[in-house]
């Protein structure tokens, strides 16, 4: 009966914890905007050229009625999802292959280490030249933004696995396939999803930069357009929109990680 009673109170406790987290988040956001307004009113050196909150609200009122603004959201999300998923489909298997096969690592890893230090933004001119459309060039830059991160995290997660676990499995008669599916992959999943979360943020950075340089649509292109027309309130609104979009994207990745790794859930 005690266990049953305890299990009944668990959802209530979870709800209470989530409510506390939501309250703290809202308090931090409101406090941030209040501090922003106060610093603008006081003409604080860094905030002299930044529009106050009321100007941003006016910019929001202008932006939300622009059909081009709402069309930019799906355009940017399509590029993000396309590049990000391609990076995972290529990077995760390649990283796992290098983690379990020394010959694969000796062959592929030196090439990766030569190309990885090149910033993805540096690939934008090359992507524009070699890819047939600007859309494909932006997706390619988004792909690079997440690809290197997931490779490094997969290798790091596999290297952190205790060698004694593999030896114990071998001594108990486990095959290489069993070791991969029962030890290596589950132990590497946290590093994979950490790389995915970090890679999602970098992917947004790369897509916004690519849209500003090579795009004709998207939130990054609108950001650049507002800058050229010196609409500072609308520019800040667009920046906040990119932040919200990135937050949603990273939240979806974290949610997928919690579903696939129930043993790491924290209450």
Write down the overall mean pLDDT.
82
Estimated helix fraction: over 70%
The ordered H/E elements are: HHHHHHHHHH
Distance between the termini: 23 Å
Bulk shape: globular
Strand content: under 5%
CATH class of the largest domain: Mainly Alpha
Please give the domain count.
2
How many beta-strand elements?
0
For the biggest sheet, the summary is: none
Can you tell me the CATH topology of the largest domain?
A: MetI-like fold
* Class from secondary-structure proportions: mainly alpha
CATH level-two architecture of the largest domain: Orthogonal Bundle
Radius of gyration: 23 Å
Question: Poorly predicted ranges (pLDDT <50, ≥5 residues)?
Answer: 1-8
Number of DSSP helical runs: 10
Question: What is the CATH homologous superfamily assignment of the largest domain?
Answer: MetI-like
Features:
single chain; 0% strand; mainly alpha; 10 helices; MetI-like fold; globular; 82% helix
List the helices and strands and how they pair.
Elements (H helix, E strand, L loop, with lengths): L1 H40 L11 H11 L3 H34 L1 H14 L8 H7 L3 H26 L3 H9 L4 H39 L4 H10 L3 H29 L7
Helix pairs in contact: 2-10, 3-4, 3-6, 3-8, 3-9, 5-6, 6-8, 8-9, 8-10, 9-10
């Amino acid at each position: 009966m005690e266990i049953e009673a305890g299990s009944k109170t668990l959802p209530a406790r979870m709800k209470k914890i989530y409510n506390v987290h939501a309250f703290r988040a809202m308090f931090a956001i409101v406090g941030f905007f209040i501090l922003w307004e106060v610093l603008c009113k006081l003409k604080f050196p860094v905030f002299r050229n930044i529009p106050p909150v009321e100007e941003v609200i006016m910019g929001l009122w202008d932006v939300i009625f622009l059909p081009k603004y709402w069309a930019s959201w799906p355009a940017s999300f399509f590029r993000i999802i396309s590049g990000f998923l391609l990076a995972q489909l290529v990077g995760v298997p390649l990283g796992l292959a290098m983690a379990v096969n020394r010959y694969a690592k000796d062959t592929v890893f030196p090439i990766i280490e030569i190309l990885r230090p090149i910033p993805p933004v540096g690939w934008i001119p090359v992507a524009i030249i070699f890819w047939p459309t600007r859309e494909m060039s932006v997706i390619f830059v988004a792909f690079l933004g997440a690809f290197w991160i997931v490779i490094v995290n997969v290798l790091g997660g596999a290297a952190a696995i205790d060698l004694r676990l593999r030896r114990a499995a071998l001594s108990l008669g486990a095959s290489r396939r069993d070791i991969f599916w029962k030890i290596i992959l589950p132990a590497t999943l946290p590093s994979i999803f950490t790389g995915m979360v970090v890679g999602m943020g970098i992917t947004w950075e790369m897509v916004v930069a690519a849209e500003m340089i090579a795009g004709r649509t998207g939130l990054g292109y609108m950001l650049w357009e507002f800058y050229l027309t010196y609409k500072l309130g609308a520019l800040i609104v667009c920046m906040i929109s990119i932040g919200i979009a990135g937050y949603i994207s990273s939240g979806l990745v974290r949610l997928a990680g919690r579903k696939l790794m129930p043993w790491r859930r924290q209450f």
